[in-house]
Amino acid sequence: MKGAEWYQADDVAEEYDDKRFSRGGQLIDEREREAVLRALAPLEGKKVLEVACGTGRFTAMLAEAGADIIGVDISAAMLQQGRQRARELGVEDHLQFMRGDAARLPFPDDHFDAVFGMRFFHLADTPASFLGEMARVSNSQVFFDTFKRGSTRSIYNWLLPMGSRLYSDEEVSRLLSGAGLSLAGSEHDFVAPYGFYRQVPNALAKPVRRLDKAVGETPLGRPLASVSYWNATVSE
Questions:
Q1: How many Cβ atoms are within 10 Å of 170's Cβ, its own excluded?
Q2: How many CA atoms lie within 13 A of 38 on its CB side?
Q3: Number of domains observed in the structure of the chain
Q4: Which terminal CB of the chain, N or C, has fewer other CB atoms within 10 Å?
């Protein structure tokens, strides 16, 4: 996976959320939480796996909402941040964090009701194998996001330290088919790329976000969107 050593560093884990979800990045956090909650609802008693859970912002949120959830990540430093978050929210008894490789998930087939991964596939060097593993351990649902090829993110993607894998709709369709998944629904958002929102104060980001949403509701919304959320079901 791209940037594996960087991602596992202690200092990166400690600063990860602050760098990405402060300032205008708060709007990204809100949108991603909304996408996950809407896709996975209802959550009470649902058996869920988060792949590449990082600092546990979704894992803890879903535990609060009543899910029986496990978060898996390759970074011990990130998992430590997740455990601390769970303690602070008082949900440490309702979730489990495990260190593991997303390409070889340590669970039997059909073990979870839903499996999801956010901010993961843009770093995947072999996305087909990762998605195949997610599908293997799910008995019903797989949810994930991708950054879109040809979007505004393409303009600055080459400047990023690790770069990002960008996906066309056609490539995602092939990946779903190869993993034995059927597309149940998708959402496409953020004409202005994440990098912009993280660089500006929240007060400035909010009116841009309103404009972003307005463009997203037009026929131009999908082709210009930089982020896609994919909700798939395990084929019979």
A1: 9
A2: 12
A3: 1
A4: C
3 state DSSP class of 26: helix
pLDDT of residue 15: 52
Q: Taking the mean position of all CA atoms in its chain, how far away is CA 120?
A: 6
Question: Which stretches within 119-217 are classed as H helix?
Answer: 127-136, 153-156, 169-178, 194-199, 202-216
- Domain residues for 209? 4-234
Instruction: State the Cα–Cα distance between residues 100 and 113, nearest whole angstrom.
Output: 19
pTM of the predicted protein model: 0.90
CB 102 within 8 A of CB 136: no
Contact yes or no for 4/10 (Cβ under 8 A): no
Place of tokens 């779903």: 176
- The per-residue pLDDT for 162 is 59
Q: What are phi and psi of 91, to 5 degrees?
A: -120, 15
Which pLDDT band holds residue 196 (cuts at 50, 70, 90)? confident
Q: Report pLDDT digits (tens) over 103-125.
A: 999 999 999 999 999 999 998 88
Closest CA to 121 of 61, 166, 179: 166
φ, ψ (nearest 5 deg) of residue 52: 60, 55
* pLDDT tens digits for range 132-164: 999 999 999 999 999 999 888 777 766 655 568
Q: Angle of helix 57-64 relative to helix 76-89, nearest 10 degrees? A: 30
Angstrom distances, CA of residue 106 to CA of 66, 92, 95: 23, 21, 16
pLDDT value at position 64? 95
C-alpha distance across the termini of the chain, in Å: 30
Amino acid at 32: E
